[in-house]
Amino acid sequence: MKTIDFDDTETAFELKSNIELKRAYFLFKIISYPFLVTLGKLIVSVSIKFRLPVDLIIKKTVFDHFCAGIDDSDSIRVVSLLASKNVNSYLHYSVEAAQSEETYEKCLKSTLKTIEISKNNPNLPFIVFKPTGYGSSELLEKKSKSISFTPIEQDQWNKMVNRFRKTFEKAKLSNVKVFVDAEESWIQPAIDDLVENFMIKFNNKEALIFNTIQMYRKGRLEYLKELKNKAIKGKFKVGIKLVRGAYMEKERERAIKMKYSNPICDNKNDTDQQYDDGVEFMFKHINLFSIFIGSHNEKSIEKAIAIAKKLLVPSNHKNLSFGQLYGMSDNLTFSLAKNKYNSIKYLPYGPVKEVIPFLIRRAEENTSVSGQTNRELNLIESEVNRRNKVSI
Ligand SMILES: Cc1cc2nc3c(=O)[nH]c(=O)nc-3n(C[C@H](O)[C@H](O)[C@H](O)COP(=O)(O)OP(=O)(O)OC[C@H]3O[C@@H](n4cnc5c(N)ncnc54)[C@H](O)[C@@H]3O)c2cc1C
After folding, report:
1. % of the chain with per-residue pLDDT over 70
2. Are strands 126-129 and 209-214 parallel, antiparallel or unpaired?
3. How many CB atoms lie under 10 A from the CB of residue 203?
4. Which residues sit with their C-beta closer than 6 Å to ligand 1?
5. Which CATH class is domain 71-349?
6. Cα–Cα distance, 353 to 95 (Å, whole number)
7. pLDDT at 311 over 60
8. Which ranges in the chain are annotated with CATH 3.20.20.220?
9. Most informative mutation of 244, 252, 293 for ligand 1 (most atoms within 8 A of CB)
10. Centre of ligand 1 from the C-alpha of residue 186, in Å
11. Cα 126–118–305 angle (5° rounding)?
12. What is the number of the ligand 1 atom nearest to the C-alpha of 371?
């Protein structure tokens, strides 16, 4: 039974002007045609190569829809606007740089700055970082396979671990929680181990650190169960950002190329089932787990709400929150907030040109999930019709 009306477009788009709604419609319409996304990518990369002034066009279209701003003061304005509808946020300086010790240090600096911005702001309860922003995939892969490091690699590894530590220490002092993003399966074991070890140290009273678990990977429900046992034994709380997973194609291609069994669930149903089972398992142990449900899947969110009701977990339980990306699934975010659930938007920000790879990924992701794009288009159309009727 539906308890929240996710078709309530008035609530979903209350913060959007008519012009912003039209822009969103136009964007999702383009995104719904894969060849237009490919063409757009080409035009952007050629324009950047020849230094054509495309920044303003990108800024006024796709950037303003999916990003909070070019700097923190811009972004704080969006944070306050969302907070006026009881939606919290977490900021991410979404600049993707080539991998070097210098860029890892820069990444650490920008994460620490985001903690500083989030400190004392109750509307910014979390920050996030990507492990490969702090050290190389090669190191993480070697560690995941228990291959010994050379002395230089050992030194680089120590530096990476230190970047994790500095982030958690500052977050703890600033009372801000930390999401550690999940990455590819061949580097994830090292990330899991690292994060687990830090959870033992930092999550003793409540979950400060949240690891991300991708439920499109076979065996991740079992991993959650193991984590529960370790947490009871080690007397720590477990923070989990539960997602389906973003690297499905890459995982499949690598498994075929390197001739190992594909770590991804055999079909979408299996992923969905494992996702919902993961939610149910953690809800049963909600005093041990702090759960952030990161998903645009309406059915999963409805199921999560039904399970919470069945297990008598109140909507505003401090260990439960839901999150979507800025510019997507506003019908979920704002309706959840209206119904007193902890609802959070992921807000990327950064200079327009630097954020382009992030924007391209968003466009590609939406193209590949055509059901989601059509849902966005239908919701916007309904809201435009509703506003037209009201203004007659
Ligand atoms: C707040 C937030 C934070 C996120 N953080 C991360 C992160 O740290 N790491 C990360 O990897 N991703 C992250 N994601 C992305 C996430 O993993 C999904 O790619 C994205 O949200 C789409 O899944 P969905 O649950 O929203 O909905 P849906 O549209 O229902 O699911 C699509 C997903 O289902 C899975 N899937 C699709 N087809 C198949 C198939 N044939 N077989 C098996 N599985 C299939 C894939 O994971 C695909 O992305 C995040 C998403 C959000 C909203």
Report:
1. 97
2. unpaired
3. 24
4. 181-182, 212, 214, 216, 243-248, 264-265, 267-268, 271, 294-297, 323-325, 346, 369, 372
5. alpha beta
6. 9
7. yes
8. 71-349
9. 244
10. 18
11. 30
12. 29
